[in-house]
Amino acid sequence: MAGLVDKRGGGSRAKLSPLEIEQLQEQLHSYTPGQLFGSTECYGDGQFWTVPDLAKLIERDYGVTYKSATA
Questions:
Q1: Model confidence, pTM
Q2: 8-state DSSP, 12
Q3: Which of 21, 23, 37, 70 is least enclosed by beta carbons within 10 angstroms?
């Protein structure tokens, strides 16, 4: 049984509250990156969400930055 106990050090924790995640989901379903940033300020053509666009939105609206692009 002792071998089954989780021994990870961790350190990962949610950066956004459940309410913030819900608000973010609503934005992602309601707007394109082009609508929120302008077509020249987003990656690609601004129609579809990319990881860099999402990171930019989270930093702008919630003040959260991620150390890794894959976080």
A1: 0.74
A2: -
A3: 70
